[in-house]
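Morning run. Coffee first, then this:
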Amino acid sequence: DHTERMLQAMGARLEIENHVLRLVPGDRLEVVDVIVPGDFSAVAFLLVAATLVPASSIVVEGVGVNPTRTGFLDVLLAMGADVTLQDERSVGGEPVADLVVRTSELRGVEVGGDLVVRAIDEFPVLAVAATQAHGETTVRDAAELRVKETDRIASTVQELRRLGAEIEALPDGFVVSGPTQLRGSRVQSHGDHRLAMALTVAGLVAQGHTTVYGAEVTEDSFPGFEKTLRALGGSVTLGD
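And here it is:
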């Protein structure tokens, strides 16, 4: 609901009922200064990296925590992740907070239903988190993943198996059993920026070296992703 929130911050009168939006005419929109919050879908990879890499503790500042976008945060918390919100505030009508993340042990969960809509872009990195969780993690009702930049169900399962993950595809999701010690390997991004970043995070917790081919696609949604990981202490280099 980013557009509705921004319009309301500019003085527009909106009526929203039963998913129907009605704009009341007659008002002028006011000029406002807006700081664009950090994108939660990009932050998700840092959350999982800090959760899985031993002895990690990071703060990610100015993250958009609009509830329509933070389904993955709900999943991580249900898995037992140590993530807290600090300095919660409103910026241009959008809820924003600083996220504090520390290494923690995870447990398997079941994900489906309405939660899927709010977490659909984060499922590749959720699969990575699930490889280190105790028990079984099941994702259902996510058939939309089949028609993203790639078939994200098939490609995520294929590439995580190369790293030694115990993961099985479902028609509308996947099942992961853990925890499993991942092994460094050569993996492919399949031209999918989110899969490339998820595999990079997996490489941080795998034994040995992991090479992600086609990782330049991370620039699509997280320019400087590898530089950010290096600044946090990750051993990541961008090849030719």
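The chain has a mean pLDDT of 94. Good start to the day.
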